């Protein structure tokens, strides 16, 4: 997605910048239809992959429903499901916006591509948070010493990184 941002959006900005320098009338050079279609197709692939990951996450909920159902686990489960549902809705909305962008002219399609790109960035963020909550649930479900020790190591590592960032060691 970063490559697409660099290739598509920065190219548009460079063209606008060059066109305003060469003429006193601030007219934009049109974006080639092939570039717009390539960007739309690439974003379709990203949206489909995000929808597939969210759907697979919804089918394989990281909760066994077994003997331990404390309040923390239920909060983490609801956070996982909420993040997963938001991920799926954002990516499906981005796909519909991309469908609409295929039907319109290049200038309006560029705006719709920007909106779809933003929605997919948000979907990836929520997908990451859903993964985080799934891992927290798994660490609580497996109540053996290995998972407790690895959770403690992860928390210690996080605290060390946080303290290093406070002292600007990076």
From TrEMBL:
Parts forming coiled coils: none
Domain named PGG: residues: 34-136
Pfam hit, one: PGG
Keyword tags: Membrane, Transmembrane, Transmembrane helix
Membrane-spanning parts: 40-59, 80-104, 110-136
Origin superkingdom: Eukaryota
Translocase as UniProt keyword: no
Protein name (record): PGG domain-containing protein
């Amino acid at each position: 997605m970063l490559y697409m941002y660099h290739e598509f959006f920065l190219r548009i900005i460079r063209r606008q910048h060059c066109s305003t320098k060469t003429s006193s009338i601030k007219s934009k050079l049109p974006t080639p239809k092939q570039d717009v279609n390539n960007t739309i197709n690439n974003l379709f692939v990203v949206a489909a992959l995000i929808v597939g990951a969210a759907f697979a996450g919804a089918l394989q909920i990281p909760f066994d429903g077994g003997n331990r159902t404390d309040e923390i686990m239920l909060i983490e489960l609801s956070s996982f499901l909420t993040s997963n549902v938001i991920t799926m809705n954002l990516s499906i909305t981005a796909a519909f916006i991309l469908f609409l962008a295929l039907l319109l002219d290049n200038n309006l399609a560029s705006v719709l591509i920007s909106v779809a790109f933003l929605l997919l960035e948000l979907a990836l963020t929520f997908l990451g948070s859903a993964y985080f909550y799934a891992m927290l649930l798994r660490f609580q479900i497996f109540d053996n010493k290995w998972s407790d020790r690895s959770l403690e190591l992860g928390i210690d590592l996080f605290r060390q990184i946080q303290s290093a960032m406070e002292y600007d060691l990076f």
